[in-house]
Amino acid sequence: MMAHTAISVQPAMVVTTNNAMLNQWNSGVCDCCEDMGICCCGFWCPYCLMCRTSEEFGECLCLPLLEMCFGGILPPVTLAVRSSMRERFHIKGSIQDDCCVVTFCTVCVWCQMARELKARRHSLVVINPAVNPVHQHPQAFNQPLQPINPAYQ
Questions:
Q1: 70 Cα distance to chain centroid
Q2: Which secondary structure element, helix H or strand E, spans residue 125, and what is its range?
């Protein structure tokens, strides 16, 4: 009798290194100069920044381009992504706050969201205990005790 193959893998645990980041934005809406790369991208090519940030957040790369078609006084895609990011990261705020900043500082909001994703990406520590897969040889059940007749093969 042989044993089945058994593989045991423990899931990884993600821990943030800064607990203060859990309840608030990493930077303010008007802190564009904190990261000059993001600031310049937002100033010179805002749709490039919007598309890249949207993709890094896990949304469709082209989602912000819909704002050109359906945008108006209140940019709906920016509002949706910002409120979704706020909810996902448990950041304090309200939809009213989101509406105000999105209406008056759309590009600054995208810069803030890009900085937030960058800060959260760099502040995560992945703890993965040593994985020791247990391998055993396959076990055959109900095997005949006699050799199989070669005529049947």
A1: 26
A2: strand 124-127
CA distance 104 to 74: 9
Contacts of 38 (CB under 8 A, 6+ apart): 32, 49, 111, 114, 115, 118
Query: Do 69 and 62 contact (CB within 8 A), yes or no?
Result: no
Indicate the length of the chain as a whole number: 153
> In the structure encoding, which two tokens stand for residue 74, read together?
């209140």
pLDDT tens digits, one per residue of 23-66: 899 999 999 888 999 999 999 999 999 999 999 999 999 999 99
Residue 70 burial (CB count, 10 A): 9
For residues 78 and 91, what is the distance between their CA atoms, to the nearest angstrom? Answer: 16
Task: Say which amino acid occupies 110.
Answer: W
